[in-house]
Each structure stands twice: as C-alpha cells, then as structure tokens.
Amino acid sequence: MQAPELTIVLPAFNESKNIEPLVGKIADAMGQIAHEVIVVDDNSPDDTTGVTRRLAAKHPHVRCIRRVGRRGLSGACIEGMMAANAPVVVIMDADMQHDETRLPTMLDEIKNGADLVIGSRYVDGGDHKAGFNQKTRAKGSEIATTMANYITGHYTSDPMSGFFMLTRQTADKAAETVSKDGFKILFDIVSRYGDTLKIKEVPFQFRERVEGESKLGFLVTIQFFGLLVSRFTGGLIPMRFMLYALVGFTGLFVHMATLFALHYGANVDFAVAQFAGAFAAMTSNFILNNSVTYAHRKLKGNRFWIGLLTFYAVCSVGALANVSIAQSLFELNQSTLFAGFAGALMNAVFNYAVTKLVTWRDT
Ligand SMILES: Nc1nc2c(ncn2[C@@H]2O[C@H](COP(=O)(O)OP(=O)(O)O)[C@@H](O)[C@H]2O)c(=O)[nH]1
Ligand SMILES: [Mg+2]
User: Which atom of ligand 1 is nearest to the CA of 40?
Assistant: First the structure.
C-alpha cells in the first residue's frame, strides 16, 4: 500500500447506513491519489463502528476510532486529525452532504501553498439551500454566518462549514487550543488563526441528507451562540460562563414569576414568596445548567440530587457574599447602582467558578 497523500476524517454518530456508500464515492473521486479514511465514532448505538470495521477488513485504507464515554463533534474531529498518517487532512460529514468530488481540487490548493482550504456553500458556484431541510435552518445558518464573519474578520465566506482541508502542521497547531466540545471547529480555527493562515475557498453544493438524522439541535445552536459571544470578547469570557449567565438570566424570570404568583395569586407573605422564588430559580438554573451548560457532564440518578444540593449550597454562600460585599461598597461610596451591580457580578462569577468545580467537577 502506498503512503497516503490525504487523510479523510469522517466524524460519525449514527451513520451506519452512510459509511460504506461514502467510502465508495470517495474512492471514485480520489482516483489514483493514495488516501486513507478514518471514521471517528462516538460509540453510536446503531453500530457505526461494526460497519466500519467490516469495511476495513476488506479495505485496509479504512480505519475506525471508537470513542467511549465521550460525545462531541469538535473533539471527534481533533482525534481523527491527530491519528492521520498523511501530511494533509480533510474533515467531512459522514452523511454524504459534502461533495467528495471536490477533494482533488482542494488538495491542489494545498499543494499550491494554502494552509487551509474551505469547502464553501456561500461562494459563487456553492449552494446551501438543498442541505437544509427547513427554511428556518437555512436562515439561521445565514445569520450565524454573518455574525461569525464579523467576529473572525471576514477571512472566509463560510466559517461554519464542516468541510475543510488543512495541512497536518496547521492541524497540530490548532489541536492545542481549539475548544474540544463545540460543534463548529472551523470557526474556532479561523477566529484564532485567521491572520496567520493562507486560506482558500472551493465552492461546493451542500446536498440533502438521505439517511440518518441531523445532530444539530437546539442545544448545539445555543452552545454555538455562547462560543460566538466568547470569541467576541477575544476569548476573555469563557463560552461556558456565557451559557451560565444566560441561564441565570432565565432564572430571574422564574424568580419573579414565582414571587408574583405566590404573593399576589396566593396571598403568601412577601418574605416567604421571595424565598420560594429564589428556590425555584436555583432549581430551574440547576436543571438548565445541567442539560445545556454542562451537557457534556450531565448529572443523572443519585448524582443529580447530590449535584442539586451542592448547587443550592454554593448559591447560598454566593448570595451571602453578594450582600456583604455590596453593603461594604455601598458604605464606601453610597452608589446603589455600583454596589448592587458589583455584588451581583461577584455573585455570578463566584457561583460559576465554584459550581463548575464542585457540582459538575469540570476541571
Ligand atoms: N463522532 C461524532 N460525530 C458527530 C457528533 N455529532 C455529529 N457528528 C457527525 O458530524 C457530522 C455533521 O453532523 P450533522 O448532524 O450532519 O450536522 P448538520 O450537517 O449540520 O445537520 C455527521 O457526520 C455526524 O454524524 C458527535 O457527537 N460525535
Ligand atoms: Mg450533515
């Protein structure tokens, strides 16, 4: 077997029906160019790994990385890239939405000196409409792309693409820093290294998914917006803190709704209603943080209840500290706005930092 010129990384979750036909299409498209295919499966229940291994038994250029106990597109892409044998690596959906016939053209761009070649749905000759089964998703993608472009500085027309090729050197550099649990690894790479990389674009037509389902749901979208805002601050504010703050904001509404319902609706004493409001807000914050902010470390069963108790405890300490700090600041300069805001901000940062470690043990 010849040493591969290109490693094709296919992150896959429940793609058992797509692997074999895609590997065939890739072989047709690559022709004489020696290549290898690495499927990175996060232990899919549909046995994507088994399908890949059976295929690998017949085709030695195919390999499977099966990850157990981990989920996440960016992390899967990084592991695939790090296992590559070729000097050039491409990331591609395993669902045949990306056009494999563009691979040789993309490889030529790398040979001509590009560090990163992006399969773009938004450049002339590219198209994205067919690939999105709903109008709202096409629109959502357009809006996110505009925002992402604004943040990355317009290095590319399609920073949200999941189809891109890069030199292994670039991949090695990126692996050190990019977020392992996002969905949009390209955006992460471009926003960090955009001005040091030679970037080229190759248009492609985004196809409709035939088999299986899209994994990009509500959760992924919310997480992505967290990442966008985080990048907007130059990475100063972590993505998870953004999500945590967003959840905190919803907690405010839960608190007020409970307070009003109990106090006006059920004639409960103000102090008791206020206390119940705080409890309701902490509970809903915990549940939301557990399934959105810390989806990758979601607590279940007994650990859910223990987590909830630690969450109450930390938030209570945070609230006490909030009041005492705000009080001292208020005595210092008499500004209600400043003292109140500083106390609340300190409270949020404290709760975030401590529950991250204590409740979700996310180090
Ligand atoms: N290994 C792994 N692959 C994933 C994960 N989430 C999505 N994928 C794969 O990443 C590719 C893009 O995901 P897809 O659901 O098609 O997103 P969409 O094209 O934006 O709808 C597909 O090949 C998925 O199977 C994951 O958590 N782990
Ligand atoms: Mg897809």
Answer: 1
